[in-house]
């Protein structure tokens, strides 16, 4: 039995590359801030060495910014690590809330991403047996469309509901009309189909529901995807 | 030389502006393309330093809008990627591109070259 996803699908590989590129962009932004803060500290040190008066508040701001950005970097690397390991098991019981949280953060690195309100249920188990990587791909595509539909200043809402039959419903609401891409694209439909998920779009096009069903051992995911 | 810096990474923009200010550059900085247009409507700038990827109005589109206000404006683009795609995305008129993190002395040299 294969223990990892066999990346023979171009869409899978494209998604993996796209997400890693946006993470690298985020890390570069973090390093750029740390670099400027360190540079400013050096400038201030040189000024002090020449006997020029420097503002203590500026020193404090620089060191505080460095601490905050290092923490931001650790958080980003942790997200990258979680994402990278999502290819380890083709079929796995995953916490849907954690998947949504991770994808919201990763899509947030994109320049067009606006605000998102996500209030996960605190007292509800959100475990579901599925292909983690493909589920992430589906959520990512949907979030990208949702953000494009409202523009960078807009806000979308993401909610999670457990259905009586054990499946899960992820609702993306507050969508707008700015997006010029048709949704779902054939690629998105294929991803949904591959994990037995269903995409439902409300008549007013302001809400997209994704129904995620539990995958069993006979889903084909214990061997390989395609 | 009057410079306008536009970058949505607020800490980056603030600190880079302070470092350029310490080196005698007369600089204004804002965090969005919309703010930059408002600034450029009331103030003339010699050079604009623009981040390529920003929410709302991105650097490439912003350059076009700023040049409508002042065709003489020179532009330096900042990119997080430093990738070929990013570099090719700009207009042929763009003065140059710099990949983050920035080397302050390199930026100063380019600023002086661009401003003539």
Give structural notes:
The complex is a heterodimer of chains A (226) and B (116). Chain A is 48% helix and 16% strand. Chain A has 5 helices and 7 strands, in the order H-H-E-H-E-E-H-E-E-H-E-E. In chain A, helix 3 packs across helix 4 and helix 4 runs antiparallel to helix 5. The model of chain B has no long low-confidence stretch (mean pLDDT 89). In chain B, helix 2 packs parallel to helix 3. Chain B is built from 5 helices and 5 strands; from the N terminus they run βαβαβαβαβα. A 5-stranded parallel sheet of chain B has the order 2-1-3-4-5, with helices on both faces. Chain B is globular. At the A-B interface, helix 1 and helix 2 of A face helix 1 of B.
Averaged pLDDT of chain A, please?
88
CATH class wording of the largest domain in chain A: Alpha Beta
Q: SSE order of chain B, as H and E?
A: EHEHEHEHEH
Helix content of chain A: 40-55%
Query: How much is the radius of gyration of chain A in Å?
Result: 21 Å
CATH hierarchy: architecture of chain B: 3-Layer(aba) Sandwich
Query: Could you name the CATH topology of the largest domain in chain A?
Result: Heat Shock Protein 90
Distance between the termini of chain B: 9 Å
At the fourth level of CATH, the homologous superfamily of chain B is Response regulator
Could you give a quick summary of the protein structure above?
The complex is a heterodimer of chains A (226) and B (116). Chain A has 226 residues and is of the alpha+beta class. Chain A has helices at residues 10-49, 56-84, 96-107, 132-150, 186-194; strands spanning 92-95, 115-118, 127-130, 155-162, 168-173, 198-201, 207-212.
